[in-house]
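Appendix B. One record, verbatim.
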Amino acid sequence: MPKQKSRKASRRSSRHNGAAATKLPKNAVTLVVTLRAKEGQHMLLEAELRALIAPSRKEVGCLRFDLHACPDQPGAFLLHEVWGAREDHTAHTRTPHFLRWNARKDALLASREAAFWQQLA
């Protein structure tokens, strides 16, 4: 009969799984971008943002590229990106899918705030 995990060990492993418990590479950067759609543009903005996900995740240096929507504020989105190094993000800004987004964003956005972060612990 296989040995069962203790409750304490089970709780500990469930608390420390996933990205939250992962130490990022030394030069990794996290980019957090909050975006708000212009009136009547939230569906188009969401479609444009979704179009960035798959090709961005395939890029060298992309460790994470997630899109979130605020359930309490329709038209509010958050991009959570993690790149192996700042240079990887710079290369991302030269890709066809990013350039396409960059050309269309002004027609869709009421506001955009972005900041780079580095993991401390």
